[in-house]
């Protein structure tokens, strides 16, 4: 049975793991805490960047000889393979760690098996401590591995009556500066930011991260089916971050830089591109998390494709009564087909309310 010391150490490891958000892809975020044989903290660390030492290595280096006979707390099962770095399971064995407690098993078939290796080496291994909390902190990477596509977080900003712009199309600014700063945090944690052609035409967005020191700029992706929205000089083509313009196979994209063009099939039904094909192409490029920023037509396509994993809505205490809604046609024609959501968080951001929700799995027979 887990002790208070076990819980405290794993919570610390989960907190440490979050420091790697936005900089470790295509690897997971992982935290590690090592207590020595007397139960005192000896070292800690987190995975800081892809290709660099894993969390266990940082913690072992900090602990030094005090790791021998101690306990390692890791948010994800220690890896068992050699890639750009060596297997962490072997490093823990070599350090003489007596006990390893990890929260979540590694679903990556190339890396799993670390727990078995440790047990074979005589280490006491325990799984599942604070697993739900660790899953939440690593949800993007875990989703991408389990589903074979990037995790998608759809973010929108709207009035309290669900409008994203006024009837005359004006929309700056519905939400507060505090909410807009929070969106930059979401961008900094994502591998890619995706918008549609309507957003580019209306706002000419730059889509970079601002106001966060040391942030890794995400890949900027514009879904521009006919290759008509992004024109030379568009802000999304500046040098802030890499950019992909997703266009239809038959679109004329001669005016776009060749290295930015991603050709994809059109959707089998309805307008736009094939969303699963888009996500597969991004996954092949190492993209594990996507921040979908708009607009309503593109969001509707993602929802219709069953490709939204989390919804984050910023609701401003404003009423318009007319204007475009946050979500356009999502293939839902009757209330029984509604995508039900489970609200997982509500937070005041300045004068606004940020609501986080995840789709509820459909029940059989519905």
Automatic annotation (TrEMBL):
<dbReference type="InterPro" id="IPR011549">
    <property type="entry name" value="RibD_C"/>
</dbReference>
<keyword id="KW-0521">NADP</keyword>
<comment type="similarity">
    <text>In the N-terminal section; belongs to the cytidine and deoxycytidylate deaminase family.</text>
</comment>
<feature type="domain" description="CMP/dCMP-type deaminase">
    <location>
        <begin position="4"/>
        <end position="126"/>
    </location>
</feature>
<dbReference type="InterPro" id="IPR024072">
    <property type="entry name" value="DHFR-like_dom_sf"/>
</dbReference>
<keyword id="KW-0862">Zinc</keyword>
<comment type="pathway">
    <text>Cofactor biosynthesis; riboflavin biosynthesis; 5-amino-6-(D-ribitylamino)uracil from GTP: step 2/4.</text>
</comment>
<dbReference type="GO" id="GO:0008703">
    <property type="term" value="F:5-amino-6-(5-phosphoribosylamino)uracil reductase activity"/>
</dbReference>
<dbReference type="InterPro" id="IPR050765">
    <property type="entry name" value="Riboflavin_Biosynth_HTPR"/>
</dbReference>
<dbReference type="Pfam" id="PF01872">
    <property type="entry name" value="RibD_C"/>
</dbReference>
<keyword id="KW-0511">Multifunctional enzyme</keyword>
<dbReference type="Pfam" id="PF00383">
    <property type="entry name" value="dCMP_cyt_deam_1"/>
</dbReference>
<dbReference type="InterPro" id="IPR016192">
    <property type="entry name" value="APOBEC/CMP_deaminase_Zn-bd"/>
</dbReference>
<keyword id="KW-0479">Metal-binding</keyword>
<keyword id="KW-0560">Oxidoreductase</keyword>
<comment type="function">
    <text>Converts 2,5-diamino-6-(ribosylamino)-4(3h)-pyrimidinone 5'-phosphate into 5-amino-6-(ribosylamino)-2,4(1h,3h)-pyrimidinedione 5'-phosphate.</text>
</comment>
<keyword id="KW-0686">Riboflavin biosynthesis</keyword>
<dbReference type="InterPro" id="IPR002734">
    <property type="entry name" value="RibDG_C"/>
</dbReference>
<comment type="similarity">
    <text>In the C-terminal section; belongs to the HTP reductase family.</text>
</comment>
<keyword id="KW-0378">Hydrolase</keyword>
<dbReference type="InterPro" id="IPR002125">
    <property type="entry name" value="CMP_dCMP_dom"/>
</dbReference>
<dbReference type="GO" id="GO:0008835">
    <property type="term" value="F:diaminohydroxyphosphoribosylaminopyrimidine deaminase activity"/>
</dbReference>
<comment type="pathway">
    <text>Cofactor biosynthesis; riboflavin biosynthesis; 5-amino-6-(D-ribitylamino)uracil from GTP: step 3/4.</text>
</comment>
<protein>
    <recommendedName>
        <fullName>Riboflavin biosynthesis protein RibD</fullName>
        <ecNumber>3.5.4.26</ecNumber>
        <ecNumber>1.1.1.193</ecNumber>
    </recommendedName>
</protein>
<dbReference type="InterPro" id="IPR016193">
    <property type="entry name" value="Cytidine_deaminase-like"/>
</dbReference>
<dbReference type="InterPro" id="IPR004794">
    <property type="entry name" value="Eubact_RibD"/>
</dbReference>
């Amino acid at each position: 049975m887990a002790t208070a010391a076990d819980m405290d150490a794993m919570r610390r490891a989960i907190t440490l793991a979050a420091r790697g958000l936005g900089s470790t892809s295509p690897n997971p975020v992982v935290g590690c805490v090592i207590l020595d044989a007397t139960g005192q903290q000896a070292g800690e660390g987190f995975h800081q960047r892809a290709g660099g030492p894993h969390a266990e290595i940082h913690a072992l280096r900090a602990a030094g000889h005090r790791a021998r006979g101690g306990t390692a707390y890791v948010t994800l099962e220690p890896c068992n393979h050699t890639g750009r770095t060596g297997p962490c399971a072997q490093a823990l064995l070599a350090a003489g760690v007596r006990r390893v407690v990890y929260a979540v098993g590694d679903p990556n078939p190339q890396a799993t098996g670390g727990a078995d290796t440790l047990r074979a080496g005589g280490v006491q291994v325990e799984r599942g401590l604070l697993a739900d909390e660790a899953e939440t902190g690593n949800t993007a990477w875990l989703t991408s591995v389990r589903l074979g596509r990037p995790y998608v977080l759809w973010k929108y900003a709207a009035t309290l009556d669900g409008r994203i712009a006024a009837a005359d199309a004006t929309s700056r600014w519905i939400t507060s500066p505090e909410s807009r700063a929070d969106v930059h945090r979401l961008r900094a944690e994502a591998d890619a930011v995706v918008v549609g052609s309507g957003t580019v035409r209306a706002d000419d967005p730059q889509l970079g991260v601002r106001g966060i020191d040391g942030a890794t700029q995400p890949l900027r992706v514009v879904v521009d089916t006919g290759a008509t929205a992004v024109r030379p000089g568009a802000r999304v083509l500046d040098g802030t971050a890499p950019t992909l313009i997703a266009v239809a196979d038959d679109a004329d994209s001669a005016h776009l830089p060749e290295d930015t063009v991603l050709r994809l099939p059109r959707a089998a039904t309805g307008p736009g591109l094939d969303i699963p094909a888009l996500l597969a192409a991004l996954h092949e490029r190492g993209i594990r998390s996507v921040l979908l920023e708009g607009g309503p037509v593109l969001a509707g396509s993602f929802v219709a494709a069953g490709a939204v994993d989390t919804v984050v809505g910023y609701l401003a205490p404003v009423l318009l009564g007319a204007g475009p809604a946050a979500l356009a046609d999502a293939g839902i024609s009757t209330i029984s087909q509604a995508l039900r959501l489970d609200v997982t968080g509500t937070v005041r951001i300045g004068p606004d309310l940020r609501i986080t929700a995840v789709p509820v799995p459909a029940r059989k027979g519905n």
